[in-house]
Write a structure and sequence with these properties.
Elements lengths: L5 H6 L1 H36 L9 H25 L3 H6 L7 H18 L17 H7 L1
Amino acid sequence: MREPARLPREMGVGGFLVFQLLIGGMLLSSLTHPWLIMLLVTTAGYLALGFPPAGSSEGALLLLDLANMAASYDLFLLLGRVAMLREEKRSIGWRWIYVPLYWLMISVAAWRALLELPRKPFFWDKTPRVPVSTSEKLRRA
């Protein structure tokens, strides 16, 4: 955001707040995703070992967390499918099971970017590309 005072005037206060929540939420969810998985695995392990005793709310909270995470993955897939062509939807097959791994990779990238920010604030880590001369570009066109 280059001009933070100008943006709310252009978007309106409501639009500005929604924008901030959307961008902030994406960053926060990327950074906290591994902790959520660790929390779910740890809680499931404790419950399997009998800690805390049966009848406590931890089991219900674990189920609620699992349902929330499954719904988040489902919504992510649904939003992706909306933009797909019919052939693309058919070709997905069983690849949807990799969504949790995809989110973990997003988290690794987010943590890497966050840790690089103080050292290299203007660095943009992009996919390396091989330079192509202008004449080659024109020949292909």
